[in-house]
Amino acid sequence: PAVIATRSYATSAASDGTKALRSLRAQAAAESPFYKRRLARRGALTDKADLQRHSPPASEALLTRAGDGEGRLVFASGGSTGAPKFSLYTQREFSETCRWLAMSLRQAGLAPGDVAANLFVAGNLWSSFMAVSEAARQLGVTLLPVAGTSDPAFTLAALKRFKADALIGLPSTILDLANRPEARGLKVKKIFYGGEHASDAMRRVWRETLGAGLIRSAGYASVDAGLIGFQCPDCAGSVHHAAAGLQHVEIADEEIVATNLVRRWMPVIRYRTGDRGRWLKSPCPCGHPAPLFELLGRMDDRVNVGGAHLDAGDVARAVADVPNLSPVFQLRVTKGERLTVAAELKSRTAADGAAARLSAALLRRSEELSDSVRRGWLKAPAVEILPPGGIPRVPRTGKVLRFVYSRL
Questions:
Q1: What is the pTM of this model?
Q2: What is the pLDDT of residues 16-61, one digit of tens each?
Q3: 200 with 238: CB under 8 angstroms?
Q4: Using CA of residue 154, residue 156, residue 159, residue 164, what is the dihedral sign?
């Protein structure tokens, strides 16, 4: 489809979206100390560091009075450096969020009567498992609340025993199940993924191994911003409809910026998602009026592997902890969610002990990586110590690719 120049859309009927946006900004400016300052600055954005610094338990500066007297929920996200950001919802806001997720799944093809397995990870203050479970209830599907942390043999046996029609979860989790010998004979009709990019190779495995004929995004969302986009049967690849009525979506300098129109207790206004995107000019053949955008990848340097979010900054600090290593490193994710960290020596000297020291530094610097290894969700990263120049450079630019993915 043709690309439209960078612009923003009020993702509801224009007048209703504008009214909701004005009302939200007015309440936030009046009741939230953080937004009273931030909204006074023309064009100012909000980022994850703001959420870390100004939300409970560190501060209540982001909050308004909208949560007074209501039941509340606390979720966490990020956290690779030991400082997770927390996202607070009232029960009413979370119910509305789940209603939108149910709409997203319905548009994508999940239907009443389907037998669906929820394979997102439960616990750790994460929201996805709870949200999918509630959305599935609203849709009238038969839910198998397996969770992505269950023993794979048990999970596959349950999917076969109850003849699951649909799987909902992280692409890496679904891929791991599909590649296991016990998956032989399992057939599912639909796969809905979220939280990670699903490559063409992954989709091919799901079709060939599991027989999935329908593979779509469960919804483009984050715990902080909520649902931002959804796919209909005519959306291909990473193209999504904007979540009309829930979000005011902008694309500024290629980055997707979201304002949640429903969350009033802890407003999320002009939030930098860290994802790149572009608006598409052509209307969707499905006839839905919500505008289309295409996801183009991450703005930042972060890899999602085996349920852990590993920031390049954490790796850089770990590499710096080892005296004889240069700052040049590369992260490689291969089949089976195996993570390898390759680093270069400063000079052509012996690498005595460097691999062991770097391995320990990685677990020390990244709390989320250490937690995933401790729980058995991810094997300890392999470490490769190379001579200077040992990591391949991009011929055209001379740069080192920070992340290399070859999951299949």
A1: 0.74
A2: 678 899 999 999 999 999 999 999 999 899 999 999 999 999 999 9
A3: no
A4: positive
